[in-house]
């Protein structure tokens, strides 16, 4: 009999009482309020397990055009055929290129024109192994795909938007992982690559948010894919509904989610509870951002002081 590992994530501290494992009505792509009609989605890793669900959700929400980047043309054509069959009014374009191929990405971004939504879902992972035994070459490949690649994609789209003089709202969603802030020793290289991009996203938000750009990092959940299936068996009860994170991405593109720009979010957190905390989150802008967790959310007051023994009298 297979020994199953329980899902530990619902037991961790979180900002909402509810922990969703499946999609729910408020974030349904069928809600008219969440319509993305007339918009263009640019997604990397769109033929993978997580990315494919996201493409389906945006097509369901009425998106006009989806540009899908992936490494395998066969998989890309499969998702293209599926989406065109289910949503004939949505234009689908696929490009078989690697996210680390800067020149190819620049060409596709310029060819695509105006982009409204960016989802960075391409990722690779190393086999489970103690941290000190991760091969340096493997770690380098992971950082290139999970950190440098997404940074290049997002930066290229931001700069192309600025050069063209466009001032439309742009939503950027990076598919991160809870492992970026939870210590799991045997997947440390993967976790580090995601944590690095989370922090870069915070700095990109500081630079671009006042210019109509919202950027989010999200933990999509424990979703069974070809990558995660190498860690846990397919029949494990640990898996969560991939439609949840896909619907969450659609909701993030609604104006009411803009106050969460620059944050690290879990798709399992209840969005109506997050909305109820909007005032508090805006008051403490470092809340839900990667960084040092201290026992107080208040900034140092006049009662605090600095000691530096290097100073000369």
UniProtKB/TrEMBL annotation:
It holds the Pfam family adh_short. SUPFAM superfamilies: NAD(P)-binding Rossmann-fold domains. The keyword Secreted does not apply. GO terms for cellular component: membrane. Keywords: Oxidoreductase. It comes from the Eukaryota. InterPro entries: NAD(P)-bd_dom_sf (IPR036291), SDR_fam (IPR002347). GO terms for molecular function: oxidoreductase activity. Belongs to the short-chain dehydrogenases/reductases (SDR) family. PANTHER family: DEHYDROGENASE/REDUCTASE SDR FAMILY MEMBER 7B, DEHYDROGENASE_REDUCTASE SDR FAMILY MEMBER 7B. This is NAD(P)-binding protein. It comes from Viridothelium virens (Speckled blister lichen).
């Amino acid at each position: 009999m297979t020994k199953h590992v329980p899902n530990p994530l619902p037991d961790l501290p979180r900002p909402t009482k509810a922990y969703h494992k499946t999609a729910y009505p408020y974030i349904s792509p069928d809600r008219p309020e969440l319509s993305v009609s007339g918009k263009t989605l640019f997604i990397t890793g769109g033929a993978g397990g997580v990315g494919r669900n996201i493409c389906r959700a945006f097509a369901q929400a009425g998106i006009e055009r989806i540009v899908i980047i992936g490494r395998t043309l066969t998989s890309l054509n499969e998702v293209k055929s599926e989406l065109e069959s289910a949503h004939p009014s949505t234009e689908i374009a696929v490009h078989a290129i690697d996210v680390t191929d800067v020149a190819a990405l620049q060409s596709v971004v310029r060819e695509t024109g105006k982009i409204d939504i960016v989802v960075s879902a391409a990722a690779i992972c190393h086999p489970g192994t103690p941290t000190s035994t991760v091969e340096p070459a493997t770690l380098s490949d992971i950082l290139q795909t999970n950190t440098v690649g997404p940074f290049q994609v997002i930066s290229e789209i931001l700069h192309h938007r600025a050069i063209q003089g466009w001032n439309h709202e742009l939503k950027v969603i990076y598919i991160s992982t809870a492992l970026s802030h939870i210590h799991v020793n045997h997947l440390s290289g993967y976790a580090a690559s995601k944590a690095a991009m989370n922090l870069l996203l915070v700095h990109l938000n500081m630079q671009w948010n006042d210019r109509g750009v919202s950027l989010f990092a999200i933990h999509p959940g424990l979703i069974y894919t070809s990558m995660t299936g190498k860690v846990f068996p397919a029949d494990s009860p640990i898996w969560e509904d991939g439609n949840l994170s896909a619907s969450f991405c659609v909701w993030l593109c609604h104006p009411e989610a803009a106050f969460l720009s620059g944050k690290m979010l879990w798709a399992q957190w209840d969005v109506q509870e997050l909305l109820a905390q909007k005032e508090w989150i805006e008051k403490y802008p470092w809340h839900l951002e990667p960084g040092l967790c201290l026992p107080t959310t208040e900034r140092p007051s006049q009662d605090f002081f600095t000691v530096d023994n290097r100073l000369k009298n």
